[in-house]
Amino acid sequence: MATGEAMCINGQSTVSVTRRSYQVVIAATRDMGLGMDMKLPWDLPTDSQFFHDVTTRTTDPTKRNATIMGRKSWESTPLEIRPLPGRLNIVLTKSSCLDIATDENVLVCSSMELALELLATAPYSLSIEKVFVIGGGELLRNYMNAPSCDAIHLTEIDISVPCDAFAPRVDTSLYHPWYSSFPIVENGIRYSFNTYVRRKDTVVGSGEKKSAAGSDFKEYFFLPKMVFERHDEFGYLNLIQNIISSGDMNDNNTLTKFGCQMRFNLRKTFPLLTTKKVLWLGVVEELLQLISGSINPMEKGSNIWDSDEANEYLNRQAESV
Ligand SMILES: NC(=O)c1ccc[n+]([C@@H]2O[C@H](COP(=O)([O-])OP(=O)(O)OC[C@H]3O[C@@H](n4cnc5c(N)ncnc54)[C@H](OP(=O)(O)O)[C@@H]3O)[C@@H](O)[C@H]2O)c1
Questions:
Q1: What separation in Å is there between the alpha carbon of 16 and the centre of ligand 1?
Q2: Which of 186, 204, 228 delimits the end of a domain?
Q3: Looking at the domain assignment, is residue 60 inside a domain?
Q4: Using CA positions, which residue lies closest to atom 38 of ligand 1?
């Protein structure tokens, strides 16, 4: 549970209040369009499932999550799923005559600050695991790149359609990608799942980058587990775990496993592992050769084509049968 302190000047006295931090979960078009005429201008079941899972799942089964939304987003939610089941629904409105809090799963608040203070106070501080701000545009204009926003889960929909509600763009000077999925296509629409986390990576004075999955990766435990484990670094660590637990011991006393692959999406990030020493210059040289379509990659001293290891492995296996 992440909380933060804020100072409120109240007349002559200074009051310290505790507020919960939150994560934003939205889907937006290329122009950051969110909706049109109070509807989503797309039908993407896998994205709806992602939204459901991210906002509903908890690591502690005795707790649930909270979703904070603007009054118009509440009204635009289909009646069959309103209030969003399994979550505490918090609706923001300035109006005092909005009578929607008859359900025990719904709270109405007159400001984001009050909602975050309420969630930092018992009983919600104990019963609510994560807080998600889910739109719409008016709310996001003020709270998407704000200091209390720890992460942004953005489904990037590769279309340009007319919209009347928009989110701001992710401020990449404040957030960096944690995970970017390979694009999927559904109902003829191409889209991808992306998570950005608030930057904590500049170590003052050293200019070094801290590891995402190294000593300080616990700082990112606030992410939903299903997103946390999608970081590229865990692809590598899981593979190592797999080799240690079920690899074959070869003649050189080395554990091996054949046919394993790691796939990385280079669109947003570069998978420079921080839990393993990587010959960065060599990686870049060989990658540039591949991208440039070099006919003879060996001409610049590359070693990746020295031997056909896959073939050699299969030959060795065949000989040992
Ligand atoms: N693509 C997505 O992921 C996504 C997510 C959510 C929504 N949407 C779409 O977005 C559209 C709705 O967005 P919108 O920008 O029009 O409206 P919105 O942000 O959902 O709601 C605006 C209303 O919320 C209240 N509000 C906003 N900020 C507040 C604050 N700081 N304190 C107190 N109350 C506050 C006000 O209600 P009062 O006027 O009652 O005071 C305001 O009129 C719909 O088309 C919906 O389908 C898309």
A1: 29
A2: 228
A3: yes
A4: 93
The verdict on the CB of residue 167 being under 6 Å from ligand 1 is no
* C-alpha torsion angle, residues 139, 140, 142, 146 (rounded to 10): 130
pLDDT value for 8: 43
Q: What is the pLDDT of residues 236-290, one digit of tens each?
A: 888 999 999 999 998 888 999 988 888 888 888 887 777 878 788 888 888 888 8
Answer yes or no: is the C-beta of 35 below 6 A from any ligand 1 atom: yes
Distances (CA, A) of 72 to 12, 54, 91, 92, 313: 37, 22, 9, 9, 61
* 257, 247 contact by CB (below 8 A): yes
**Residue of 71, 96, 117 with the most ligand 1 atoms within 8 Å of its CB, for mutation:** 71
pTM, 2 dp: 0.85
**What's at 137, amino acid-wise?**
G
* Listed residues 228, 262, 279: the one ending a domain: 228
